[in-house]
Amino acid sequence: xxxxxxxxxxxxxxxxxxxxxxxxxxxxxxxxxxxxxxxxxxxxxxxxxxxxxxxxxxxxxxxxxxxxxxxxxxxxxxxxxxxxxxxxxxxxxxxxxxxxxxxxxxxxxxxxxxxxxxxxxxxxxxxxxxxxxxxxxxxxxxxxxxxxxxxxxxxxxxxxxxxxxxxxxxxxxxxxxxxxxxxxxxxxxxxxxxxxxxxxxxxxxxxxxxxxxxxxxxxxxxxxxxxxxxxxxxxxxxxxxxxxxxxxxxxx
Length: 252
What we know:
This protein is an alpha+beta fold. The chain is built from 4 helices and 13 strands. The C terminus is likely disordered.
């Protein structure tokens, strides 16, 4: 009897970790979407984020460039199928005091910066090097492929790693916190090199329920490119479509 008890104890020790690992990629994504805000998060219509940022030009130690006003406006495409391209409508402004550091936008047809319309090939490269996070909202739809990868850690936090392949073949890696299912990492290949985004300082909003990372670090080939601190979040507010067509430099 003692031998049997010992055997059962050993089996329990080995079985418990296996059960903890039974979540497949779909289950992880389902829990991630629910933790982020559920259907309200997955079907978001608009998003406005504002705060400040620090840039590390060309990946060098100095000088740092501090943008004391940094903002993003988004109108989302509910039928998105491509991870690494402009999604719906987007505009990003970066200001140093009253001086424009840069402005970029996509109005659904053309891309713009503070100097006017951007060449389509240049714009495609720019958006492909920066966009990829939002595809996770669509990953459970038909046509997407999802797979679970080896677990990892992000800033010391254990994470589930999942790969999402969109219907056009674009691949994006995501790391979800094992305790909270908050998205702590996104990564994908770009013309600038391997791009990673690390998320932290999560804040929970109500009506709609929404989890927003307050701190974002961006890397290319392992070198930090810039950091963003979001201090204000607005979800599903009206946004004038004209905002996304930039002409002459202007402030908002």
